[in-house]
Amino acid sequence: MSGVKKTDPAGKYDSLIEKHVRSLGWMKKELTVMDSLIDPVMGINSWDDAVIVPFGGKKLVASVDGPYTKRLVEKSALIHSATDVVVKGARPLFALDTLTGSEQDMREMIFSLKEQALAMKIPILGGNTMVDPDSEPKCSLTVIGELMTKEPIRDCGACKGDVIALVGEPIWGNRAERIEKAKTLFGAWFKILEKEVNIHASKDVTKGGLISAVYEVCEKSGRDYELSENIPFSLTRNLDNFLISLPEKECKKIEKICRESVVSFSVVGNVL
After folding, report:
1. What is the structure's pLDDT at 2?
2. pLDDT in tens, 187-227
3. What 3-state class would DSSP assign to 153?
4. For the chain, how big is the Rg over CA atoms in Å?
5. CA nearest to 94, candidates 81, 111, 76, 112
6. Which candidate, 104, 117, 204, 245, has a CA 20 to 30 Å from the CA of 153?
């Protein structure tokens, strides 16, 4: 294995990583004080895919995503938003939306969101709308879930010697295809959580692609990494599947669940 390493000096992915990982450090610094107001399980200091707060003896998991263009809304925006919650170890409970655009644009976006919500069993229970025929149609989504695991699977727990792997194939295609791929991935993931497989870190592969997700996990974990040269997916494109870091001995457990669930499992590198 002699692929991409975090320590490669000013590699061809550096500008992408800067845009999607490093560039928002100022915002984290500005908002860090917010954690002192509520003492979240995961908040600004965690800077993870979702926020987790204790509530009524349980742990609520929340994530906001968007604004999405109408094109993406009509394909898989709700699914895209839900992955941030699911990959942390939670089951989505409901969603809220914010829509803007002409009435016709909003009708078409709502039609698609309704189909996604019913298929994924993530009801959209409210939100906000702004009818503006002159604005570009956009949608933002908030997904709220309940943590299934005792502790969230953070994106900062990768350990030396871990295997870096992808669970699920990219959620690409038309709306129907994306819904089926997401249902299959989520189903397999929930089985993995129920089996209490020892996963050290997890993250959905979205903005900045696989290379940015791997970099962020290993940077926050204080580790280096090496990626394989024969990864079957793009390193820079949004995949919407799940990146995980886990001990090699745990791989067989996940491989078995994925095989039975007809979900792909691909080892793509190692933590150094």
Report:
1. 43
2. 999 999 999 999 999 999 998 999 999 999 999 999 999 99
3. coil
4. 18
5. 81
6. 117
